[in-house]
Design a protein that fits this description.
- By secondary structure, the chain is an alpha/beta fold.
- The chain has a single domain, classed as Metal-dependent hydrolases (TIM Barrel), CATH 3.20.20.
- The protein has 14 helices and 8 strands.
- An 8-stranded parallel β-sheet has the order 1-2-3-4-5-6-7-8.
- Strand 3, helix 5 and strand 4 form a beta-alpha-beta unit.
- It is globular and about 55 Å long.
- The two termini are 17 Å apart.
Length: 338
């Protein structure tokens, strides 16, 4: 089974029109999330891009989360941010209900800039226990480039790690918007992913939370490609030797959203095929034609299948087996029964 663990909902324009009204009125009309009928959500998924894209590239199932750059974690009032997250999650839950064999939900929890991470935990619990979601995004920088958020090694994050372990849900490191004029949000993703990995590798987070499951989006930022520099920094910083860095790095998982065969080969050779999950964000920022392959840049499955040092079992695990192992709440038997 081909499982895309990194994808974002292609919601109807009406959902984003409600967001525009919210950001303009800022509570004048209340914060109750806009509701859509099950038929409306199903029809939009069928007639627009969602299912046709999966079928075109041969993906059996996608994990859907809100679009991170849309989540406005640095906006106020805070209740507006929470309501917007709830509206996205309700929409995703309806799409999963309509197509249980093709989709699963991943939360985009309402992390609030300059507030403790605990404010997001009630919505994570609702998503998992009431809506049946199987994972969560982790925005490492809800302040959107203002340097206000502690790095992931700090105890600020411990309530989230504890809740993720309690619910047994993996987290996908994926920052959101960026107000820093030196970076676009896509560039900011790579910065934050690199910082996230290094802060975790140099910390005792996995000693304190041995069952914590964290996936790093976009192939792990700079880590696989600057591995020599970061190994040296680990040694010079007194954290341990180079082998210790590699051992700690293998506590993490990585997705394949890289768009380039040589980059994928580097990632897999560094992280190991057992730590890499198929992820494409299709459709998203990679949905452009690649003149070298004749496919879209985010059609990543053929790139993985063409890597000659991978065994057939390695390829099966990357394309779906690892996701089935890591996402313990992924109940494929129940989906098939429906």
């Amino acid at each position: 089974m081909i499982i895309d663990c990194h994808s974002h909902v292609c919601a109807a324009p009406e959902l984003y029109a409600w967001k525009a009204l919210q950001t303009s009125a800022r509570g004048t009309h209340g914060f109750k999330p806009r509701a859509f009928s099950d038929e409306f959500v199903r029809d939009h998924a069928e007639t627009k891009r969602n299912l046709s894209i999966l079928d075109k590239v041969g993906t059996d199932m996608q994990f859907l989360s809100p679009r991170p750059f849309q989540m406005m974690h640095d906006e106020k009032p805070h209740q507006m941010v929470i309501a917007w997250a709830e509206a996205n999650h309700n929409y995703i839950a309806q799409q999963v209900k309509a197509f249980p064999n093709r989709f699963r939900g991943v939360a985009g929890i309402p992390q609030l800039a300059h507030e403790p991470v605990t404010v997001a935990l009630p919505e994570l619990e609702r998503c998992v226990k009431e809506l049946g979601f199987i994972g969560t995004l982790i925005d490492t920088d809800p302040g959107e480039g203002d340097n206000s958020t502690p790095t992931l090694d700090k105890e600020y994050w411990y309530p989230l790690w504890e809740k993720m372990c309690e619910l047994d849900v993996p987290g996908l490191i994926h920052s959101g918007g960026c107000r820093n004029g030196r970076e676009s949000y896509s560039q900011h993703f790579i910065t934050e992913e690199s910082l996230a990995i290094l802060s975790l590798v140099h910390s005792r987070v996995f000693e304190d939370f041995p069952n914590l499951k964290i996936i790093v989006a976009h192939g792990g930022g700079s880590i696989p490609y600057q591995i020599g520099r970061w190994r040296a920094g680990h040694v010079l910083g007194g954290h341990g030797d180079a082998a210790d860095f590699d051992r700690r790095l293998k506590k993490l998982y990585f997705d394949t959203y890289l768009h380039n065969k040589k980059s994928l080969e580097m990632l897999i050779s560094v992280a190991g095929p057992d730590r890499v999950l198929f992820g494409t964000e299709n459709p998203g920022s990679g949905s452009a034609p690649d003149p070298e392959t004749g496919h879209s840049f985010d059609d990543i499955k053929p790139l993985i299948e063409s890597i000659d040092f991978l065994s057939d079992e390695d390829k099966r695990n990357i394309l779906g087996g690892n996701a089935q192992r890591i996402f313990s709440r992924l109940n494929l038997t129940a989906a098939a029964a429906q």
